[in-house]
Amino acid sequence: MTRTRSRRDRSVSRPPAYGLTRREARRLRALHPAWRIQRFLDGLAYDVAASGCRSPRRVLAEGRVQCMDGALFAAAAAGLSAVLFRTATAAQPAGVEPEEISEAA
């Protein structure tokens, strides 16, 4: 017997991954609004030796950051949340404010 998916199952789409693992994407999505990005960066160890520029994925993996790493990480986290926010508001039901959708996610 073949199992068919309902119409509701087809309408739910997964947010774009952008090459991130589920765990990385979940951690970046949790950094919304912007003050959470800053709080996250403030909690990381500062790399005084400045051993090269880290990608946002390396920042998540190593838990260390320097100035340029923090800037790149903040831009990536803010950009991802903006994309997800636009995706959520594109299919926004009438009469529902965008803040209600983003807070519920």
Give the topology, please.
Layout: H1 7-11, H2 22-29, H3 34-42, E1 45-46, H4 56-62, E2 64-65, H5 67-90, H6 98-104
Parallel strand pairs: 1-2
Helix pairs in contact: 3-5
Question: What would your notes on this structure say?
Answer:
- There is one protein chain.
- The chain is mostly helical and 105 residues long.
- It has one domain.
- It has a two-stranded parallel sheet.
- The mean pLDDT is 75.
Summarize the entry for a quick read:
The chain starts with 6 loop residues before the first helix and ends with a helix. The mean pLDDT is 75.
Key structural traits:
105 residues; mainly alpha; 57% helix
Number of helices: 6
Q: Uncertain spans, ≥5 residues at pLDDT below 50? A: none
* The number of domains: 1
Query: Which H/E pattern describes the elements?
Result: HHHEHEHH
Task: Work out the radius of gyration.
Answer: 17 Å
> Could you tell me the strand content as a percent range?
under 5%
Mean pLDDT across the residues is 75
Assembly level: single chain
Percent helix, as a range, is: 55-70%
The total count of strands amounts to: 2
SSE class? mainly alpha
What is the approximate shape? globular
Give me the side-by-side strand order of the main sheet: 1-2
Largest sheet: 2 strands, parallel
End-to-end separation: 35 Å
